[in-house]
Specification:
nine-stranded mixed beta sheet, AMP-binding protein, Rossmann fold, five-stranded parallel beta sheet, GMP Synthetase, Chain A, domain 3, single chain, about 25% strand, AMP-bd_C_sf
Amino acid sequence: MAERNLARQAERQLELHGSYDSLHFEGTWWSSAALADRASRLAAGLAGLGVRPGDRVVVVMANCPEVLITYQAAWRAGVVVTPVLFLVTEDELRHVLADSGAVAVVTTAEFLPKVNAAVGCVAGVRFVLAPGAEDDPAAPVPVLDFAEVSATEPGAIADRGDDDLAALLYTGGTTGRSKGVPLTHANLLWCGSASQQASSGEGLTRTLLPLPLAHAYGLLVTCTGLHQREPHRTILMRWFDPAGWLELVQSHKVHRSTLVPSMIQMLLAQPLEEWDLSALVAVSSGASPLPAESRREFEARVESVTVYEGYGCTESGSLISTNPLGMRRAGSVGRPVAGCEVSIRDEAGRPLPSGHDGEICVRSPGVMSGYWRAPEVTESALADGWLHTGDIGHLDADGYLYVVDRKKDLIIRGGFNVFPRDVEDVLMDHPAVAMAGVVGRPDPRLGEEVMAFVSLRPGAHATADDLIEHAKARLAANKYPREVRIVPQIPLTSVGKLDRKRLRAAVRAE
């Protein structure tokens, strides 16, 4: 039982590859042995503070080596990692702390005020851990220094098996309060292994990681690293900024990077041709659909690179399908990874043939067993033993998956279905458009009317009428937007996805 867990897998990786410079962060290289040693000592320190196997520990940090050390320490101690994006509000953090039943929080100094404010309203949290922290008598619970808690002798790995929880992640809460998604050691071990098999490329060993490690996509990349067949070097960014990303790709001769579509669109506003990006072979794009025009422009301007789209959700460990290296099908999110089944279903739950749009349903060893303490929601999400993703898409004759849109984002205009992504892709084809977001606006005659928010490229000019005419020439009469609003920037969620919730709120407020 004790052999099948993430901490044991990390030990096997260290034994296989030995110690080498594996992580670069803000000018400093960390060796794999140093990271493992710090994790082992922190695990013993957590146990010494009374944290027990199965306890939940919330991690609220921007990217840094301490995030990875904490994850590994938690798994060694048998603790359940509960990652939270540092951009969450105090109220959102308070909800996660209370709902998860967390016993501790690991954070950094800049987020201590928010963490202390949230902890003060939640029973059960016993201490807060932060690098360089000093105990604050006014804090609601003791604030301990990360280094001091790690200054202990390494301990043994706690016995945890396949079905024991390794992580508890919280969804974005677009339909109410965020829900906990429990993932076991078996879930994450399978996801890491399947991801490595699907995306492996011999000699592509230098990776730039700007994604938040607290997100499901970032956690998948972390778990993929536990299965590499040759030593890999990761350059970690605290957070994404386009100029910094370009500098790191050039200076470290990076082979591959993981991005989300909004990051690619920000890079397109940079002078890409002025940088030496010739070592960059593959960019993986996920978390939300990538506009075709953005993909084409990025590949045209960075001639060495191919963009590979993939697909997953928090409930599936962020892994469902991917385009294997050298087998990319443009516009598709790839084929289901080995061991994952995808079925396209109609409204009655009946399987649809290839080429027909329906809800994407998934079955794999990476899928959660159910939402945390939410049996009613679990029953509908996992009906008939399949995860119902809420996404609309289809499979082609060769088994490649195409994601059309979110089911809940569908606009019904005069009885006709309009998928926002179809409209957004057309607007993105206009040379002046940097980003577009489309939502339904209540309409007394048609039920809903198509409305678009658009941000323009720096120095570009287009009027709302220009963009309406552009869309009208390329879309059916029931699809093109009757109103286009040009805004300074399109709102994004904390993980870089288009924030339709805020767009809808703006429409409702009027």
